[in-house]
Amino acid sequence: MALPVIVKSTKKGIHLVLSSEVSFEELLCKIREKFTESKDFFQNADFAISFSGRVLNTEEECAIVDVVSESCGANIVCILEENDLLDDYISEKLQQIHDEKLMKSGQFFKGNVQSGETLESDSSVIVMGSVLSGGKVISKGNIIVLGSLCGYAFAGASGNSSAFICALDFASENIRIADAVYKNTKVSLGGFRKKKKASSQVAVAKDNRIMIEPLTKGYLNSI
């Protein structure tokens, strides 16, 4: 049987991997033991907490938070949901792609690409920031934006139709991959666009058409 509780450290706090093979009462006891043993480390610390491995209702999540706080004197500032964890994973994975794959062959740009600015690259490019509306990124390889993509992005500028464009917040309505062009000109009644919730997405070219899809763990692992 797997360990009832595994404690992992994340950038935003603590992640608990919980076994579904024990009763909830036994689980609480194991959590209490874990954090009592680590009291000196966690006491008076402020951090977020997240869970996986077991389906919890709101009452059970609150009970775990109470046990953790009482056992080690920590202040749990919030409970992270699954979408928050996925965003963290995507951000870390994109950084890993940069470190392992693009350091030698790609360009690394820190900061925002402002309106009126154009960033061009003969290789893949990672933007450690956002591409603002009116800004342009043109690359012969892939384009990865670790922020919001609101401006124009042109990947595979040399004709590479296997290039892709991805961003943690994909808000651009004017992108191009090789010869495939995507331009969304739809507006709602009254000429106003409804603001979309920020989402991590990837654009790829298929049959000379651009497809925009959710940026999932599976896709990142296939890059």
UniProtKB/TrEMBL annotation:
Septum formation inhibitor MinC C-terminal domain boundaries: 109-212
Keyword line: Cell cycle, Cell division, Septation
Subunit structure of this chain's protein: Interacts with MinD and FtsZ.
Septum site-determining protein MinC N-terminal domain: residues covered: 5-76
PANTHER family reported in the protein's UniProt record: SEPTUM SITE-DETERMINING PROTEIN MINC
Function: Cell division inhibitor that blocks the formation of polar Z ring septums. Rapidly oscillates between the poles of the cell to destabilize FtsZ filaments that have formed before they mature into polar Z rings. Prevents FtsZ polymerization.
Record-given protein name: Probable septum site-determining protein MinC
HAMAP family assigned to the protein according to its UniProt record, in alphabetical order: MinC (MF_00267)
UniProt similarity note: Belongs to the MinC family.
InterPro entries given in the database record: CAP/MinC_C, MinC, MinC_C_sf, MinC_N_1, Septum_form_inhib_MinC_C
Pfam families: MinC_C, MinC_N_1
Residues annotated as transmembrane: none
Organism: Brotonthovivens ammoniilytica
Domain of life: Bacteria
Keyword Cell cycle: yes
